[in-house]
From TrEMBL:
The keyword Transferase applies. This is PLP-dependent transferase. Residues 79-455 form the Aminotransferase class I/classII large domain. Keywords: Aminotransferase, Pyridoxal phosphate, Transferase. The keyword Transferase applies. GO terms for molecular function: kynurenine-oxoglutarate transaminase activity; pyridoxal phosphate binding. GO terms for cellular component: mitochondrion. Its cofactor is pyridoxal 5'-phosphate. Pfam families: Aminotran_1_2 (PF00155).
Amino acid sequence: MRVTVTRFSLARSHRPVFRRPSTPTIRALSTSLAHHLNNTAVMSTAWKPVFPFAQRLNDGRALALDVWTIFSAANLPPDCINLGQGYMNFPPPSWTREAAEEALRSVEGNHYSPTRGRVRLRKAIKEFYGTQFGKELDPDTEIVVTSGANEGQYAAFTAFIEPGDEVIIFEPFFDQYLPSIAFQGGKCVYVPLHPSPEPAPNVKTGKRSWTIDFDELRRAVTPKTKMIVLNTPHNPVGKVFTRAELEKIAQIAEEHNLIVMSDEVYERLVFDGQEHVRIATLPGMWDRTITVGSAGKLFAATGWRIGWLIGPPSLIGPTTAATIRIVFSSNTPMQEAVAAGFEQARERGFFEQQLKEYEERRQVLIDTFEKLGLEYTWPEGSYFILLNISRLRWPENYAFPATLEGRGRDFKAAWFIANEIGVSSIPVSEFYCEEHVNIGENYARFAFCKDLDTLRRAGNRLQRLREYIV
C-alpha cells in the first residue's frame, strides 16, 4: 500500500515533529539519558533556558535528542563494532596526507585561504571533472569550496530559501537537510521512496532498490515550492537514480521553475556497472542545478570537512556570498590535501581500486544477510545497506532505556542488536517525518565503509540473530 505525500509545516510549533520530545522536556530527557545510559557526558543536565531561543531550533529538531547521541560509542558496549556511523576506520591515501603536512610546514599553509577556495583546488576540481557537466567549468564563477558538503548546502539554502518557501526532499533523507532548511524559515515537503517487493538478481533475500511515485511528487509541488533536494547515490537507501527517473524530476523542475540541489557526494561509489547520471547535464538543467561534492566521501577523509559546489554563476555567486559570511574560508592545509588527491587520482587508478575494495566490503554484508535469511535492500551505490528487521523479536521483558520511548520499532531493534549482538546500526525512522515513520521503522542501516576484518567480525556476530528471528 502506498502512503500519501504529506505537506508538513515546520512553522506549526504546536504539532509534534516526528515523535521528538517537546522543548520543555529536553532537560528531563537529557537527565533520563544520563541515568539510563550511565553517561553524564551525553548532554548537560545543568542546561536550562535562561532566554527564549529561536523557534527555528525546535523546527529543525536541533534541540531534540538525536539518533547519533543515543547510539554514540559512549552509550554502547566497549567492544561493540560500529557499523552505524558512516565514517571509515582506515586513513585517506598517503599522498594526500603528505600534501597536508607539506602545507603545514609552510607559512601560507597555516593562514586564510581565498574565500572561494584555494586556486589550486578549484583548478584541480575543474581539471578532474573536465567536461562531465557538458562544458568546461570556470573555477572562478562556477566552483566554490566549502567547509564540508553540509556547510555548502546550508549556504545554498541561506542564499535562496525565504521564510515560507517549500523544499521537496525524498524520504528517507540525510538528517542535516531538515535543520538547514528550517533555519531559513523554509518548510520541508516530504515525498517517500517506496521499498521494492521485487527480488534483486542472483540472490535469495535481497530486494531491488526503492522507487519513486511520480504522481506523489507532482502533488507535492505547490506555488510555494522553491527547490527539490536530490541525493544520488542515496543515503541511506543506496539507490542510484536512473536516467529516466532524473528526466522526470528535471521535467517537473522545469515546469515549475524550481532549483535542484543535487547531493552527489557518493558519486564514485556506484556498483554493478550502474550509470551515475548528473541531473545538471540533462537538457535545460545546468542553469537550475547546484551539484554537491565531498572530499570526505571521495578520499576517506570525513574529518577534513572539505566540500564543493558546482553550478552556474547565477547560483554559485549568491551561495558564495552566503558561505563567506558563514565560515569566511575553509581549512587551508586540507584544501591542499584534496587538491593533491584530485591531481594524482587518475594516474594512480585510485578511484577504480577504491571501488573494487568497496565491492568486497559490500559483499561481506550481503553474504551475512543472505545467511541470516533476512531481507535487505540491494545497495546500488554509497556504502550503506538497509536490513529489514521486521522479523526480529526480542524478549518481552527486555529492558530498553527510556530515551527510546515513543520512537519507531527500529530504535529498539538497533539497540538490542548493539547491546546483545555487539554490532551497532542506525534506525532508519530517524530520517522520516512523523506521518511516514511506518516505512522507516522496518529497517536498520549498516555501513560497510570499514576494513574487511571488521566487517567479517561483525558478520560472524550478526549470525547470532538467528535465535531472535521469527
